[in-house]
Amino acid sequence: MNLSNLSYVALSVALLAQPLLAEELKPKPAGDAAPMMVVDRSTFVSAVSSANEFEIKSSELALQNASSGDLKEAAKMIIADHQKAGEKLKGILDKKGAPLPFPIVFSPKHQKMLDQLQAAKGKDFDTLYLDMQVQAHLEAIALFRTYAGSGDDQTVVGFAKETLPSLETHLSHVKMVVAKQ
């Protein structure tokens, strides 16, 4: 066999083998996947408490300092929904005999973000607040999805599943405000 014929044979074998290899490389369905991370109730509650309090306090600052009416409306919605969610979680935990710590302690990250917001003024405040809201809601959505899918306390899992649509609405609303800026 000359080199040209050998090349055709090798190419034919490679092309015929591709469908077989593709079958082997098909990803498993998502239902077979293990969660990327598992969060226990204590970790979830601690993270949620800090994030929730950050959302409320930063949005209260927005009501005082924002220059945009749309931003202030978003802040009002965020405050109301996060206060409601915080009360719901508090009620669930109280019934379980595991009350939320009071006062709520910010994570170092949330404290730093709040400090930055307190120092910002005017349009800088608006931009920083919106950026932080997008970031905070993306993180919260990821946390709630994780716990909803792999949480160790079914009552708190129910809370996570019930609260998730509200967080997604906040993210969408904040993104709309960003688009208008």
Structure description:
The protein has a single domain, classed as Ferritin, core subunit, four-helix bundle (Ferritin, Up-down Bundle), CATH 1.20.1260. It is built from six helices and no strands. Helix 2 packs parallel to helix 4, helix 3 packs antiparallel against helix 6 and helix 5 packs antiparallel against helix 6. About 15% of the residues have low confidence. The protein is 79% helix and 0% strand. The protein is globular and about 45 Å long. It is mainly alpha-helical and 181 residues long. It starts with a helix and ends with a helix.
Please sum up the structure shown:
With 181 residues, the chain is an all-alpha fold.
Keywords, separated by commas or semicolons:
181 residues; mainly alpha; Ferritin
Fold blueprint:
Elements: H1 3-25, H2 41-65, H3 69-95, H4 108-119, H5 122-150, H6 154-180
Helix pairs in contact: 2-3, 2-4, 2-5, 3-6, 4-5, 5-6
| Helix-strand string | HHHHHH
Question: What is the quaternary state of this protein?
Answer: single chain
Please write the CATH class name: Mainly Alpha
Return the average pLDDT rounded to an integer: 84
The CATH architecture name reads Up-down Bundle
- The secondary structure category is mainly alpha
